[in-house]
Amino acid sequence: MYTTSSLFLRTLAQVGITHAFVNWGSDHPALLEDLERQRVEDGKTALEIITCPNEMVALSAAQGYAQVTGKPAAVIVHVEVGTQALAGAIHNVDVGRVPVLIYAGSSPFTYEGELKGSRNEWIMWLQDFPDQAHAVRQHVRHVAQIDSPVNLTQTVRRALQIATSEPKGPVYLWARREVMEQDIDEALMRAPISMLKWPAICPAALSPQIVSAITSALLASTQPLILTSNIGRSSAAIKPLLALSAHLAIPIISTVPSTTNCPHSHPYFLGTTYLAAGTHHAVLQRADVILIVDTEVPWIPGNRDAQGNFEKPSESARIFVLDGGDPLKSRVGMWHVDAEAVALADAGVALGQIEQAVRAGAEGVLDEARVKEMAGEMEKLHEEWIAGMDKAEGFGVVVPLPLTRVQKGEQPPSPPISPISPVSKRRKVSFSRKSDDMDTATDDTRSDSPSTLGEDAPQSILMGPTRPVKNFTTPQIVASLRRAINELVPPSGALVLNETVTKYPLIWEHTRAEGRIASNLKSSASADAGKSIGGVITSRGSSLGWAIGASVGTILGSRVTDAQDSIGDLERRRGFDFAAAVVGDGCFMFGVPSTVFWMARKYNAPFLTVILNNSGWGAPMGSMLGVYPHGLGSAAGGQKLSVGFGPNVPDHSGVAVAASAGWAWGRRVSAHGIEQGGVRVQEDETNGRSPKEVLDMVIREAVRVVLEERRCAVVDCVLDAI
């Protein structure tokens, strides 16, 4: 016996969907029944069914899957409550232009047994709302109701055609329970189903006039600049980007990136900015031609640099905006860039056109001496940027870490070895890319200083009678992670998922990711590049809690070895050997770790989590200081401002261990030592080692656990508390 649900599941499998991330409910009886029919008749289900005890995690995992494979997954949730429980993840896939097919059942419309599937549970009255799709309508590309099995395959294929066309994004299908329970003719199950006649929209090209305008502008330019956020979503776009940059010595800056757009070692790559005041590169203000490619926010016009100048282009700059899906950002309430031209064009196609035109038109026009001079200037800026990162990653004087022996099973001394307590005096916070880290205080008042710990602080905290050990900084932690990945993971085999909010740019820069598209030019200053880091990604949105759930999806997606089929990108991709989620402690809690690490064990999807633990939400505090830099709140700590998680901070790694029934590996590390389950580890693991050596030891072991033991690992790294 087959039902509409049978046809729905078969259609998904036939058109190329491989995974369904599911959270079942009372609207899914026929789906559950048909999956069991498949197991009985075929020995397995046509789709990989991934049970997700939380809907936001389900959609985050589907997003991670699509980010790796280029293919949409299915997410199945329960009526309007499950639709709402998708929560902020629906924002992320919308803003991130990630194709996902979301399906939700709906309460039955009959209640006297008139049809199979009529109401038979009290909740079905409470869940019958007049516009179930309203909760997600503004975030999806398409909404459709499945009214009948007769046109179900067309309904699904139209939805996928829209989801995989630029601007890509989620689509939402729903159906009443009686429709999905309806018995159908077996002939419907035998009919061929494919996407061959339902293709995504072809990538758009620039018009000849725009190609000519951009080419002539670049050939005459003395200070060209390329800004991008999302080019790296397609390797086909990175190659012409690098070729154009190399040919004309054009600097590249990533603004609020969602993916690796340029190899770190490319000598004209000048880094990443998240557009906090004072962090945009000075080349922006003197650029005479600017190419903005696949970028939502290239600069913030009202921001000023340290000298009081506006961080925006000059009035005379020639600006061209290119975007493959929505160049006017029509889904944003207010958006504008003073541009000479705005073009709907695929980045790879458009940059290829421009690069070819530049080569063809350069003879007799291009000032080679000027290009050579500019190349030297950009290489110098690149090398200075690298030198600044090298300095930020350093530990200064390396002093062995003395530890007081704690016997196995003995309780740690009070206070614990890695305290996270608010600073007694509010420190000045710098969001400048030139500072080592937001973690670094500009005065001597620190959470681990003798003045805040008292004279009875254990010897493990003090390097001597008066010399405190400084907590780790984000650059030091990320550099340690990069070294471990370079040592243990095959070249370009690692993916880093960045959800660190106030530390976003530090992760981008200190991973030094090379990506998977090599530049023909190499900076001599980039010897320590992240050669094994094949990519860094974010959600591209602003709803936090994406990274750890998405990590499960990236591991599952990496197992899909052939992503070239009839839907999604035609570009063939390969998966990753290793994934690391680098998150703040707030993002870790937002991510529902109890669900994520249960899923990771059940579906054998191990990944590393590195928590940058500042015991609170740094972003709201930073926002407050941005508006009230000298207000009353500027002198208050995180706990007083209600953005702190102390004084009794969670055992984050312990949550992962518990959720996975002991399968996950977890440690908490600070410059004062290592904890496991709240108890300091044995002296022989740490005694005589410097803080750098302790950090490297823990992170390297965590990477090894994921790669060799195929278990999740969580390293909770203590920073200064906010």
The count of helical stretches stands at: 24
- Mean of the pLDDT scores? 88
Total domains: 3
| Corresponding CATH superfamily of the largest domain | Thiamin diphosphate (ThDP)-binding fold, Pyr/PP domains
Pfam families: TPP_enzyme_C (PF02775), TPP_enzyme_M (PF00205), TPP_enzyme_N (PF02776)
Domain Thiamine pyrophosphate enzyme central: 212-303
Main location: mitochondrion
Domain Thiamine pyrophosphate enzyme TPP-binding: 536-671
Task: Describe the fold and architecture.
Its main location: mitochondrion. It is found in: Mitochondrion. Residues 536-671 form the Thiamine pyrophosphate enzyme TPP-binding domain. One of its GO terms (molecular function) is magnesium ion binding. Belongs to the TPP enzyme family. The chain has 722 residues and is an alpha/beta fold. The protein folds into three domains: 2-190, Rossmann fold, CATH 3.40.50.970; 208-389, Rossmann fold (3-Layer(aba) Sandwich), CATH 3.40.50.1220; 474-718, Rossmann fold (3-Layer(aba) Sandwich). 34% of the residues lie in helices and 14% in strands. It is built from 24 helices and 20 strands. It has an eight-stranded mixed sheet, with helices on both faces. Helix 2 (29-42) links the parallel strand 1 (19-22) and strand 2 (48-51).
Write the layout of secondary structure elements.
Blueprint: H1 4-14, E1 19-22, H2 29-42, E2 48-51, H3 55-69, E3 73-77, H4 79-85, H5 89-95, E4 100-106, H6 123-126, E5 142-145, H7 152-163, E6 170-176, H8 177-181, H9 186-190, H10 208-220, E7 224-228, H11 235-248, E8 252-255, E9 269-273, H12 283-286, E10 289-293, E11 318-323, E12 341-344, H13 347-361, H14 368-393, H15 450-453, H16 474-488, E13 494-499, H17 504-511, E14 533-537, H18 547-558, E15 578-584, H19 585-590, H20 593-602, E16 608-613, H21 618-627, H22 652-659, E17 665-670, E18 673-676, E19 679-680, H23 683-686, H24 691-709, E20 713-718
Parallel strand pairs: 1-2, 1-3, 3-4, 4-6, 5-6, 7-8, 7-10, 8-9, 10-11, 11-12, 13-14, 13-15, 15-16, 16-20, 17-20
Antiparallel strand pairs: 17-18, 18-19
Subcellular location: Mitochondrion
Domain Thiamine pyrophosphate enzyme TPP-binding: 536-671
GO molecular function: acetolactate synthase activity; flavin adenine dinucleotide binding; magnesium ion binding; thiamine pyrophosphate binding
